[in-house]
Design brief:
Two copies of one chain form a homodimer. By secondary structure, chain A is an alpha/beta fold. The first copy, chain A, is built from 15 helices and 15 strands. In chain A, the strands form three sheets. Chain A has a seven-stranded mixed beta sheet with strand order 1-4-3-2-5-6-7, with helices on both faces. In chain A, strands 8, 9, 10, 11, 14 and 15 form a six-stranded mixed beta sheet that branches. At the A-B interface, helix 7, strand 11, helix 8, strand 13 and helix 10 of A face helix 7, strand 11, helix 8, strand 13 and helix 10 of B. Chains A, B: It holds the Pfam family Hydantoinase_A.
């Protein structure tokens, strides 16, 4: 799936006074691009399958943006298990970017808030690894809401970042530290496997334990419930069959040893509802944990990002101000928010070679 | 991995009075063969990847056994998600067997205890699907222990089958019904993903939620703990890297956002121990549930099958008689127990074309 978006002509205070920058968010399942001026592009890119094609893909995609524009990179794709470890992953990503962008200024965002050149980046692996949440949170804290919790629900994970006095408030920098404190919830709106969310599903009044196989994901639950558009041409599903309602229902049925022959639409919706509830519960747990850890008030403002907003539990929203990034920045930018953030942040810093 | 085993010269009462039969257990991840005389062979066979090669593979493998011997088939491989549904899966398996065994008598085991020819089999899909547990349990009930619980811990699942008065005591026939009653526990000693077993892992005194990715399996925990031999040439692992202690440790570390650079052998063993405990707990829960459902005494005899015996919780074994099939039948046969069972059962029935 490839998406090219042209933003409506919005003026951004900082980017309008600096030279434009192209931000790239190199994830484990997607490549997302955004210019500081508000143009964005994204594509599915399964790093664990296609990492050798990364450089070539970057060349293709960057041709959609102005030639020779400075490049700001943030990443999470180094965690893909095609890489023995994160060091090898970061090196591969940096090398691929450098190969794709000769004669162009490139900078890598660090969770310290700095930008590194390629040599510095590979010397500071753990600072440039898994940095995209920090880039987004830093821009949001500076520009959208200085004191809030940023909740970014993506396809694979949910970031819950405490923001205080215009800055990122958590000292946790790595994925591991964030898994421990609860600010990285490894549940998203698409890729999360059903067997990681529930042990049992109720069906026709009885509880069936689920098959611990990668037979279905949260995406299937959302398609069955009409929260995600059917996309029959897209086969990025657990069984490589179409992402349409029929096959999504079939995939959910497989989780309890059945298939489309016996599980009808209504039964599939019942299964999907339970799966969505389990996903929301994990996210709710994370929000409460972070809120309590940082002594935030129960009605602390939430800034919502990502395309999985329907996973935000209603209980969590009640009695709060919720600022939606897609309303603040427009849908086009919101779809590639960390890429936009890293581009915007780079326009604001003096960069020397 | 291919294994050819010649049994020691043991005499089996029934098979010695009937013509030999070759049994095939066509699973979702393995093909297992055994003759009623006690010769066995097995190979890994990822149905979801290689289903088109099934017929050809069967031809190759059957050449290890006597030409023209009658064939008894049992299966579970129809649940692989390369098949839209079980009907299509059963049809594909039956067609592949028929293509591979022209001019040979073939019969398909049904959970009703009958043997069907190919035409009957495809007309009785739900009876021949997922039948291998029933074949093994029927032979065990008739020959090993008439009143017991059979606990068969395989690579992917654990079957817990109540046996009473020499027969299979559960009325549940399908995978779904068995998932509901608890007699099919979808936890095994190799393929079960870690993210389906635990939500958190303790590491250095803190709880980290796990990444809901297919980064590691129970097999990695067993390799790290020395319960499974290292096999560097075998890459049937989550990341397609070798099944050795180094890579198994690296895979376990990935579950909590780390890698081999920071997680040493001792730390990996601590992670592995937690994973094994979670797997044992699921199996223990299943055994207790089935025991209670069928009114079995707490000290009911267990018949243990499968190569995951170390997943049988100690609490469950205490104060019971445990009969090990590998001691009863020899290791060679025990490795392909359902294939052996279906071969033996077919020698005991009159088969007409």
């Amino acid at each position: 799936m490839q998406l090219l978006h042209e933003a409506p002509s919005v003026t951004f205070s900082r980017s309008s006074v600096a030279a434009p920058v192209v931000g790239i968010d190199i994830g484990g399942a997607n490549l997302k691009y955004a210019s500081s001026g508000g143009k964005s592009f994204s594509r599915e890119f399964a790093m664990w399958k296609h990492h050798r094609d990364l450089s070539e893909t970057l060349v293709d995609d960057l041709s959609r943006f102005g030639k020779g524009l400075p490049i700001a990179v943030t990443m999470t794709g180094e965690l893909a298990d095609c890489f023995l470890d994160r060091e090898i992953g970061v090196r591969h990503i940096v090398e691929s970017v450098e190969q794709a962008t000769r004669n162009t200024q490139t900078r890598y965002y660090s969770v310290t808030g700095e930008f590194f050149n390629a040599a510095q980046a590979v010397a500071r692996i753990d600072d440039v690894a898994a940095s995209n949440w920090h880039a987004l949170a830093t821009l949001v804290a500076g520009e959208v809401c200085s004191d809030a919790m940023l909740v970014d629900i993506g396809s694979t994970t949910t970031d819950i970042v405490p923001l205080s006095a215009g800055r990122v408030a958590t000292p946790a920098k790595t994925d591991h530290d964030r898994l421990v404190e609860g600010s990285l919830v490894y549940v998203g709106c698409a890729r999360t496997p059903v067997c990681a969310l529930v042990n049992e599903l109720q069906y026709q009044g009885e509880n069936a334990t689920v098959m611990n196989e990668w037979f279905a994901t949260v995406d299937d639950a959302r398609v069955v419930l009409g929260l995600e558009k059917e996309c029959p041409g897209d086969r990025a599903s657990a069984d490589n069959a179409p992402r349409d309602a029929f096959h999504a229902r079939n995939r959910l049925a497989r989780m309890i040893g059945l298939d489309h022959r016996s599980v009808d639409d209504e039964a599939a919706r019942t299964l999907a509802t339970q799966i969505m509830a389990a996903a929301r519960e994990r996210i709710q747990h994370g929000i409460r944990k972070v809120q309590s850890l940082y002594g935030f008030a129960p009605n602390t403002t939430l800034v919502l990002s990502g395309h999985g907003g329907d996973l935000l539990p209603r209980d969590v929203i009640a009695d709060r101000t919720v600022i939606r990034l897609d309303e603040q920045w427009g849908e086009v930018i919101a779809r590639s928010a960390p890429a936009y953030a890293v581009a915007r942040l780079m326009t604001a810093v003096a960069v020397r070679d």
